[in-house]
Specification:
The complex is a heterodimer of chains A (about 80) and B (about 160).
Chain A lengths: L5 E7 L6 H9 L8 E6 L4 H12 L2 E8 L2 E7 L3
Parallel strand pairs in A: 1-2
Antiparallel strand pairs in A: 2-4, 3-4
Chain B lengths: L6 E6 L4 H16 L3 E6 L17 H9 L17 H12 L5 H10 L3 E5 H7 L12 E3 L1 H9 L3 E4 L1
Parallel strand pairs in B: 1-2, 1-5, 2-3, 3-4
Helix pairs in contact in B: 1-4
The chains are: A alpha+beta (about 80), B alpha/beta (about 160).
């Protein structure tokens, strides 16, 4: 399943809208193109919001899952 | 910025804490989503980008400043302010929910290169000088500049 390696992790746990998306947009710049950023969030809205963010910015959402109350997103930087 | 960069323009007319809050949530999110974002502050909206020092040259201008000195942290909610108790209550409720504060949102907008424009005509009416506004304000302009920005934008808001 995990046919990618995580380059860096953003801990956005406890943050409310819009900070998970804002922090993701800042953090993705530190990931190399083609690299994968892992995002941890607890805001239930982040499921829809991170998905919308990847669509708008053209980055690729590889995987989104919920594990023990924590949302985990894996985003590949496309450009 | 590439030519396919989308733009977002927000006119901030209100100086109410809750409405300015919405404006900054939208601005920071749009910027985070890769949009070139502009906020145009007019009339009461100027209160959000004032430093908070006393302003005004004439009697009315000074009175206006006395009644509402401005500054991002001094804005009161549009409802239930009750002379500042409401502001305190909303701040506390937001802090309890770990919601980002208004001054932090302003700083985030600045960090994300959101362009802050101030309306010259309202500044003249309210007797507010450029030096009364925070240093991060990019320019003092007129309505045509805002319309030109809005024309290029895919998303526009009036708050």
């Amino acid at each position: 399943m995990s046919d990618f390696t995580v380059e860096s992790t953003l801990d956005a746990q406890g943050l409310k809208c819009p900070m998970p998306v804002v922090k993701t947009s800042k953090e993705i710049k530190n990931v190399s193109i083609g690299g994968v950023l892992e995002i941890l969030a607890t805001d239930p809205g982040s499921m829809a919001d991170i998905t919308a963010w990847t669509k708008s910015t053209g980055n690729e959402l590889l995987k989104a899952q919920k594990e023990e109350g924590v949302f985990k997103f894996y985003v590949r930087r496309v450009k | 910025m590439s030519e396919d960069t989308q733009k977002c323009t927000i006119v901030v007319f209100s100086g109410d804490m809750d409405k300015v809050f919405a404006a900054f949530i939208i601005a920071t999110t749009a910027a985070a989503m890769g949009m070139e974002t502009t906020m145009f502050f007019t009339f009461w909206g100027l209160k959000a980008i004032q430093k908070g020092n006393p302003t005004g040259t004439g009697f009315f201008g000074k009175m206006l400043s006395f009644m509402n000195r401005g500054g991002i942290d001094r804005l009161g909610p549009s409802k239930f302010n009750f002379g500042g108790i409401g502001r305190w209550m909303f701040k506390k409720m937001m802090a309890d929910q770990n919601v980002t504060t208004l001054p932090e949102l302003l700083q985030t907008a600045i960090d994300l290169d959101v362009k802050l424009l101030a309306c010259l005509m309202s500044m003249d009416v309210m007797e507010i000088q450029k030096s009364d506004l925070i240093d991060e304000v990019d320019d003092v302009v007129g309505a045509a500049t805002m319309i030109a920005e809005a024309q290029q934008s895919q998303v526009q808001f009036f708050i």
